[in-house]
Write a structure and sequence with these properties.
This protein has 67 residues and is of the alpha+beta class. The protein contains 2 helices and 3 strands; from the N terminus they run E-H-E-H-E. The longest helix is centred in the middle third of the chain and has 9 residues.
């Protein structure tokens, strides 16, 4: 039996916008992604829920790298 590859896809996001004067939902989405200060970078597992959060605040985050 061949061993299945368990390498997970990841996506690296950087915060490029400030949460000041943004709706609370957008601030909570940033916190959910592990971002809450400018220019923070996080590498997250590439799942539909993470992609949905990134797509809901494209003006505040930037996708740096996808692997």
């Amino acid at each position: 039996m061949a061993k299945a590859s368990t390498k997970k896809k990841t996506v690296t996001v950087e915060q490029i916008g400030s949460p000041i004067r943004r709706p609370a939902v957008q601030r909570q989405t940033l916190i959910g992604l592990g971002l809450n200060k400018m220019h923070r970078v996080r590498t997250l597992e590439d799942t539909p829920s993470v992609r949905g959060m990134i797509n809901s605040i494209p003006h505040l985050v930037r996708v740096v790298d996808e692997k």
